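Researcher: Next entry in the queue.
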Amino acid sequence: MAAAARLWRLRRRLAGPVAAACRSSSSSAAPPEKLTLRRQAEGVRSIVLNNPKKRNALSLSMLQALKEDLLHDIKSKELRVIIISAEGPVFCSGHDLKELSSEDDVKHHSQVFAVCAEVMTLIQKLPVPVIAQVNGLATAAGCQLVASCDIAVASEKSQFATPGVNIGLFCSTPAVALGRSLPRKVALEMLFTGEPLSAHEALMHGLVSKVVPEDKLEEETMRISRKICKSSKSVLALGKATFYRQMAQDLDTAYKITSQVMVDNLTLRDGQEGIEAFIQKRKPVWSHSQDEKK
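Model: Structure for this entry, 294 residues:
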């Protein structure tokens, strides 16, 4: 009995420190990694899709994180261009199918597609150019993301596909972006068969802007970004908005819209500064305001 009592007291003394150590270990556990990483330097914002274990799937949480990163301090005079890239061998595999597997959760499904459409359209509404830096496979909504960006630079190993038809879920929303980036018959072959385009095929058909060796991908993307940073932010914002606006119009209306925008452009301080600098053969000095007029 005495031995049993001593053992019981020993267990009581040890229980406190062990429980405290367990609580400490639990509280000091590393927080989950962020789904996206955002950094900015010298006018260039880099947004990295950071969930390679799930092939950077566009889950609702990933879409919300991407939207937040795109909109963060968007009116900052320092921000000139945004680059979207990804960790791992897959740029983006599209929607997280586990979120779409329940037949009953229609409300959640609707939210996923609504937020996805919001992010895709937001990219073209932003006042700065958005570049996709693709190094790997981009499928379904991932391919949609590439097609929605203003510029896309891809490595030679990259591929692009809309394979939803093969699992019974036609890529209808990706088709919106694809149909506006590719010739109709090329887009429909992708959508009907699910077969991928190689990087060079994507370049030939206009889905991407440049194809470079993998070891030159970041260098080329930054070269384009630095070139953009040298231009007037106000002029680029006006030009980007006008480009997408006129694309939805008939030819006569498009010319009417853009003719007026050219006149408006001349009222911007940077519009006059650029012309005067060109005539005087000097480097222009851009203003910091997006809408400052002379």
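Model: Residues 99 and 216 are 36 Å apart (CA to CA).
Researcher: Noted, moving on.
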